[in-house]
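Here is one chain, start to finish.
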Amino acid sequence: MDIHVTGPGTGSMYQTFLPDGSVVVNVGGLEPLTPEDGNITYTTYMEQYMTSGAPYLKGLYYPINERPKGIKRETLVKLIREAAKLIMNGFSMPVNPIENLASDGKLFIEMCEKDKKFCELVTSRAPDTDFDCYDFWIDDIIHERGVWKEKQGVDDSIEILCPFNRTLLRELREKYGIHHYDVSVN
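Its structure:
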């Protein structure tokens, strides 16, 4: 029985070597925000694209809103038992790539489907687009961090480096049940 429990980073790359029918459990990591954001952290799965791109694996994820509270033994054991059950009962392959994404990955896919301008911004190398709009993890967008954050200018104007449909993003965050960092999770 092959269950790979990992978090973001290099450890996620080992899933490539798992046999068909294995399960990857990504416990996620915590990404800190800046002091002006209240030093609140949020969950990041980072290399979930590796699981999404492996049709012979099934991916499970630690609950996105629970991870900032720490890794709880009961929750992790529940995920491992779920992984074992999937292996024992079998699951159909190839696994749909979207099924193997965490909720923030699914949100990103839906955002791209519904907002073609946004999708073009993050996937094309347009000559007048700031490079920072390409250098990101999806959770940077989901949590409006860095270049994806609205910043108030000195003259009270709103500065936006990488524009996108924030209303759609916020609707999708609600749809996928993802708490934004402005909601206390502690």
